[in-house]
Design goal:
Layout (H helix, E strand, L loop, with lengths): L2 H9 L6 H13 L4 H14 L3 H12 L14 E5 L8 H10 L4 E5 L9 H5 L11 H11 L1 E5 L6 H13 L5 H14 L4 E8 L8 H17 L3 E8 L10 H13 L6 H16 L6 H13 L2 H12 L6 H8 L5 E5 L5 E6 L1 H13 L13 E3 L7 E2 L6 E5 L2 H14 E4 L9 E5 L1
Parallel strand pairs: 1-4, 2-3, 4-5
Antiparallel strand pairs: 5-12, 6-10, 7-9, 7-11, 8-10
Helix pairs in contact: 1-3, 2-4, 2-8, 3-8, 4-9, 4-10, 5-12, 5-13, 5-14, 8-9, 9-10, 12-13, 16-17
Length: 435
Amino acid sequence: MDARTVLVKVRENQPLNDDEIKWFANGLADGNVSDAQAGAFAMSVYLNGISKKERVALTLAMRDSGDVLKWNFDGPIVDKHSTGGVGDMVSLPLAPALAACGAFVPMISGRGLGHTGGTLDKLEAIPGYRTDLGVDRLREIVGDIGCSIVSASGRIAPADKRLYAVRDVTGTVESINLITASILSKKLAAGLENLVLDVKVGSGAFMKTMDDARALARSLVDTANGAGCNTSALITDMNQPLSSSLGNALEVMTSMECMTIGHVESPMAQATIALGGETLVLAGIARDAAEGEAMISATLTDGRAADIFGAMVAAHGGPSDFVANWRDRLPAAPLVRDIFPQQKGRVQRINGEALGLAVVHLGGGRLIDGALIDPRVGLSHVVRLGDVVDQYTPLAIVHAANPDDADRAVAAVRAAIEIGDDAVAPTQLIHERIA
């Protein structure tokens, strides 16, 4: 078998068999497939598509191109994945909340991508927190505490790492088939039994329309279930930031408020509760969504999720007293400034992607691969759709490293938030469930 044979079949829109797909995935991982051949494959899939059967086979082949984790816990293995948004730190309270309900959560997460924040970057705002743990230590922490949030090792789905880099430079990142295989190959390599997907839609998401979000959610759910992982998805709103905080340390603060003060009415907490309830139903811990949501909500208000989060932080090298003293342990920016609107009125629209990029330009994200992140910077107290603002009510508060960065953020936030006089209809957080 050779790459040229596979490429001709994909180019001519002929179905690939499982052996051909497996050979190509292994070739991506071991170098027998060149960058040019990987690019040709990605472009052919982008233009011609592949069948559901081929998509499942590609996902499994990319999963099996490296290590696949095995677990021996007395309880269900679960996880959640978000397609990326702004002000979305759901993973931080959700993992310990699920663990408090009897699930085991080996959460392999990623870093910020484009305008969206990354779970690993948020956790590394906590002094000492290490995300690069080996498999044996990951297994110990999950077994002892119930959850652990780590980065993927180089041996997790290496075929995807190679293909992703090629997609990024060949204009094929948007292929739903390749997005699906990329996301799921890494998640399934974690040995999951149950997976809930948070597919974002709106101005702050990669999928801007319901049709696109629905197509991605359906592809992910069908493929994951076809690969043997019990999976469903919620399509959630990202036409405004999920939280009022954007930026790594600021988002950790908001997560701690949710777990220690019990602020379960916020959109971020409600998303956590909805996704957690869905996960508990999939895992057989709750009979229905209402019972699952009540169980998750209880862990956020009675302190169990906070205690498990604190134990996880300590196990990863962070402060042992983090839950009691998180306000003192997290870094703070040296310059804090209110961003007032240039006119009085009601918030009509919010460009979430623009707000996310404003945080990136403050230093809270990466403009080039491998760049260092400033965990202190970001935006807090960001307004929501329908809020009334004036010269006394700011659009947001900027946390910056210096005055020049603050000035640029002020201009970016004002440009991203449209003010007018019209009434604004209430927004719906959960748009659809895809099962």
